[in-house]
Amino acid sequence: MEVVIVPDARAGGELVAEAMAQLLRRKPDAVLGVATGSTPLPVYEALAAKVRSGAVDVSRARIAQLDEYVGLPAGHPESYREVLRRQVVEPLGLGMDSFLGPDGAAEDMQAEAEAYERALAEAGGVDLQLLGIGTDGHIAFNEPCSSLSSRTRIKTLTEQTRKDNARFFGGDIAQVPTHVITQGIGTILDARHVVLLATGESKAEAVAAAVEGPVAAVCPASALQLHRHATVVVDEAAASKLKHTDYFRHVYANKPAWQGL
């Protein structure tokens, strides 16, 4: 795995945004896989700034959703479709016709999961998938012990995850959905380039397990070790538990600039 250590979250956001911009210059209709949460916000802000300055044209890009709550009504402000509309689609000047994502209010969720797999395939697959990582090593909503070959499917949220997300629902855990639809680990690994972004000391143990530990279902993010083009971008705090930081710094410092991420 390629590991890039940056000074802080802002630098990480700029680096990943530039990787997206370089991709779009090569392939204007690229499919960008996006994640929710606070970690990727600097990426979206930096990419939107590039669009406003004219440094990159995203008009033909498509945005692919990583996961979604099940059971929230259409337009609910905490549905991930709405979050991504506010944080990614509109700031980039795109319309929702550019958006690919599962319908969390569908009557047949298994059919919806299968339909989303087909939609991604018909779009040509995800060119760059941005991921965060949980403190337990989960990616998307693939919790520890998820199958490393899993596809888009329905998952039951753990009580801890629902408690963690209650802050987005007025602190009322009863309002937090009990299920989600999520890309599986196998689906994520289909992306041509996977970029995992992690910041903060709370993510250090998970990053170390994903990068330097064994490939194991107990740490879903470790499956990225098997990917042909996986990049892990971490700030100094998130890199603090890694044992081979000198090696990672040396490799990236001596990488030809034209290769980018």
UniProtKB/TrEMBL annotation:
Pfam families: Glucosamine_iso (PF01182). Pathway: Amino-sugar metabolism; N-acetylneuraminate degradation; D-fructose 6-phosphate from N-acetylneuraminate: step 5/5. SUPFAM superfamilies: NagB/RpiA/CoA transferase-like. The keyword Hydrolase applies. InterPro entries: Glc/Gal-6P_isomerase, Glucosamine6P_isomerase, Glucosamine6P_isomerase_CS, NagB/RpiA_transferase-like. The active site is at D67, D136, H138, E143. Its EC number is 3.5.99.6. Residues 10-230 form the Glucosamine/galactosamine-6-phosphate isomerase domain. The record marks S146, R153, K155, T156 as: Part of the allosteric site. It catalyses: alpha-D-glucosamine 6-phosphate + H2O = beta-D-fructose 6-phosphate + NH4(+). Allosterically activated by N-acetylglucosamine 6-phosphate (GlcNAc6P). It is an enzyme of class 3 (hydrolase). Keywords: Allosteric enzyme, Carbohydrate metabolism, Hydrolase. Belongs to the glucosamine/galactosamine-6-phosphate isomerase family. NagB subfamily. Catalyzes the reversible isomerization-deamination of glucosamine 6-phosphate (GlcN6P) to form fructose 6-phosphate (Fru6P) and ammonium ion. PANTHER family: GLUCOSAMINE-6-PHOSPHATE ISOMERASE (PTHR11280:SF5). This is Glucosamine-6-phosphate deaminase. It comes from Streptomyces thermoalcalitolerans. The gene is nagB.
